[in-house]
Description:
Chain A is mainly alpha-helical. Chain A is built from 5 helices and 3 strands; from the N terminus they run αβααβαβα.
Amino acid sequence: xxxxxxxxxxxxxxxxxxxxxxxxxxxxxxxxxxxxxxxxxxxxxxxxxxxxxxxxxxxxxxxxxxxxxxxxxxxxxxxxxxxxxxxxxxxxxxxxxxxxxxxx
Amino acid sequence: xxxxxxxxxxxxxxxxxxxxxxxxxxxxxxxxxxxxxxxxxxxxxxxxxxxxxxxxxxxxxxxxxxxxxxxxxxxxxxxxxxxxxxxxxxxxxxxxxxxxxxxxxxxxxxxxxxxxxxxxxxxxxxxxxxxxxxxxxxxxxxxxxxxxxxxxxxxxxxxxxxxxxxxxxxxxxxxxxxxxxxxxxxxxxxxxxxxxxxxxxxxxxxxxxxxxxxxxxxxxxxxxxxxxxx
Lengths: 104, 230
């Protein structure tokens, strides 16, 4: 979900709470996922411009951005997941009674 | 409070928080340097020997040089570094107190200022004693302790000035304590930023999620990265 959300607009920088709101995942799930993606190099992060957060009177945000390698790998990974899901759904589909080639 | 005054208070609260983080970092370094001054594995208190020999050298008296340079200079460097970092912690605490006062947290600011004064005094004493007192290593240990106290006072001042309550700030501290020390400051700031953005009634839910995230993050961040594995 996080990867799909980031792939939606790969050049947009997102922060944790924003990602949490967009994906519907709780913050307890978002941060470990982002940390994992950052460690494998699919996502990079940096602090926001000091002027912006000081002017708004809040601690600075950490923005996450998909890397080029991350975008390619994430796209591939998502396609593989979709394929696997489709295959799994086909394998589990119950054949209609009397249909030809139904089971062994 | 009028709207512009509120904005000024919010900006000062952020500044106080940043200075408190700086004070904590300096205090940590002071503690590490004090550990270098008094190392259990080394001949203790080489300062007295060092001073005694320096006096003999000045007066022209003969003495045998058996003291290893690494011992003496390691200890001296430890004491000098402790003094330097403690002074930095005291300065950052003073700035945090100033920002907290501007944000309206007068009592906490006064307390932080007092702690900064004490830490600065001990830093001066450590710097002075490093070259002419036998008790310099022990002064370094106490200096580091007062630097830590100053950093704690700065943190209290920042908390009193900030928009987050005591429970929320403590929960962030607990969650951050689970993480490896290199990542603590980063996630503390990230979570505080998210909490400031949330309405008060949604903070409790976020805090619960944050605590569970901290446990998982602690595991993830301690695992070697693919590059390290190679």
